[in-house]
């Protein structure tokens, strides 16, 4: 081998060793990550808060998800983590998973994403009102894979519905408003 070729080969070997050392550091760092505390689906969201239902409680209904619904609910919690990061504020879940019986009692749509663990109704009081939350999330719908982002109200209350697409379907990225049961597919008000 020529002297220049030897220098190049040694340089490449040194670069490979450096990259292997960095890869080893990353593997060690990922192994050091603490597991989530019991009951947590993600660092900030628990199974309890994503399955709590006053309606279920009042009617003695078990609102526990099955394994498939739990897997989808975990993906929803991961989406909520992303939203929390965008807002820079804690996200409060007012409604997450609803078993069929609970969904019927609260008047939810038969095909509601809440039924299979793919939706949550949220607020983020430290960020702003629900309309401001919708406007902050809307530019990220495609990136986050949000199927529906709904500025919703009923009985004088306002909240944000965030829904993921059903398994096997692509996100429709639909932002709209539902006010007291009436749907408006126009851009968010104001």
Overview of the structural elements:
By secondary structure, the chain is of the alpha+beta class. It folds into two domains: 1-33; 38-184, Muramoyl-pentapeptide Carboxypeptidase, domain 2. 42% of the residues lie in helices and 19% in strands. The chain has seven helices and eight strands. The strands form two sheets. It has a six-stranded mixed β-sheet. A two-stranded antiparallel sheet has the order 1-2. The chain starts with a helix and ends in a 6-residue tail after the last strand.
Please describe the structure with a list of short key phrases separated by commas or semicolons:
single chain; 190 residues; Muramoyl-pentapeptide Carboxypeptidase, domain 2; 7 helices; elongated
Query: How many β strands by DSSP?
Result: 8
User: How much is the average pLDDT?
Assistant: 90
CATH C-level label of the largest domain: Alpha Beta
How would you characterize the largest beta sheet?
6 strands, mixed
Helix/strand structural class = alpha+beta
What proportion strand?
15-25%
Oligomer: single chain
CATH topology of the largest domain: Muramoyl-pentapeptide Carboxypeptidase, domain 2
| Order of strands in the sheet with most strands | 3-4-6-5-7-8
Low-confidence stretches: none
Number of domains: 2
Roughly how much helix do the residues carry, as a percent range? 40-55%
């Amino acid at each position: 081998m020529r002297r220049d070729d030897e220098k190049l080969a040694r340089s490449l070997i040194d670069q490979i060793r450096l990259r292997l050392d960095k890869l080893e550091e990353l593997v060690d760092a990922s192994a050091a990550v603490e597991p989530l505390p019991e009951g947590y689906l993600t660092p900030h969201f628990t199974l309890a808060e994503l399955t709590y239902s006053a309606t279920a409680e009042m009617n003695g209904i078990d609102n526990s998800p099955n394994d498939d619904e739990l897997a989808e609910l975990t993906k929803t919690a991961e989406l909520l983590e992303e939203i929390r990061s965008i807002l820079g504020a804690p996200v409060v879940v007012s409604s997450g998973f609803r078993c069929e019986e609970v969904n019927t009692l609260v008047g939810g749509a038969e095909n509601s994403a809440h039924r299979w663990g793919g939706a949550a109704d949220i607020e983020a009081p430290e960020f702003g009102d629900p309309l401001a939350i919708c406007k902050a999330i809307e530019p990220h719908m495609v990136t986050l894979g949000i199927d529906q982002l709904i500025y919703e109200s009923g009985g004088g209350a306002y909240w944000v519905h965030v829904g993921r697409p059903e398994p096997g379907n692509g996100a429709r990225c639909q932002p709209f408003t539902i006010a007291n049961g009436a749907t408006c597919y126009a851009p968010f008000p104001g």
